[in-house]
Design brief:
Shape: globular
Largest sheet: 6 strands, antiparallel
CATH class: Alpha Beta
Order of helices and strands: HEEHEEEE
CATH architecture: Roll
Number of helices: 2
Structural class: alpha+beta
Strand order of the largest sheet: 1-2-4-5-6-3
Radius of gyration: 15 Å
Strand content: 35-45%
Number of domains: 1
Helix content: 10-25%
CATH superfamily: Hotdog Thioesterase
Distance between the termini: 29 Å
CATH topology: Thiol Ester Dehydrase, Chain A
Length: about 150
């Protein structure tokens, strides 16, 4: 899958404004020599609602939202990997984050490249090695766990 607009993202994720944190998919490589990988974009602007309170006069993207953005990218990769097996009612819940590291704040004007690599999946639990990069520098990394569920049963 090459560069995809937000409409394509909305086919896979149920999130909508203000909680859809992936603006574009740059690349999905299911045939990578290492493991399937996705690279997506989050454009960070001063117009984000969370900057009103985090922090006035010193805007910083909240860490939990950075993790959520990486989890959304991981969910997009998982949904893409399922291909024809994916049901329209399928969701990926953000189920956990391990080894979380924040290297520097993300601020308005940053473009975050969200990268998620598939690690493993069994019994509808998927694990991804994720990182957020700004200007090629890792600003956040985590091992993200997602749980596959059907909206009709959730």
């Amino acid at each position: 899958m090459s560069s995809q607009p937000v409409e394509k993202i909305q086919e896979f994720l149920p999130h909508r404004y203000p909680f859809l944190l992936v603006d574009r998919i740059n690349e999905v490589d299911l045939e990578s020599e290492e493991t399937p990988v996705i690279r997506a974009i989050k454009n960070v602007t001063i117009n984000e609602e969370f900057f009103n309170g985090h922090f006035p006069g010193h805007p910083v993207m909240p860490g939990v939202l950075i993790l959520e953005a990486m989890a959304q990218a991981a969910g997009l990769l998982g949904m893409t990997m399922l291909g024809q097996e994916r049901k329209p009612t399928m969701l990926y819940y953000f189920a956990g984050a391990d080894n979380v590291r924040f290297k520097r704040p993300i601020v308005p004007g940053d473009q975050v490249v969200l990268e998620a690599r598939f690690i493993s999946g069994r019994r509808r639990i998927w694990k991804f090695d994720c990182q957020g990069l700004v200007d090629g520098e890792v600003v956040c990394s985590a091992l993200i766990t997602c749980a596959e569920r059907d909206m009709e049963q959730a």
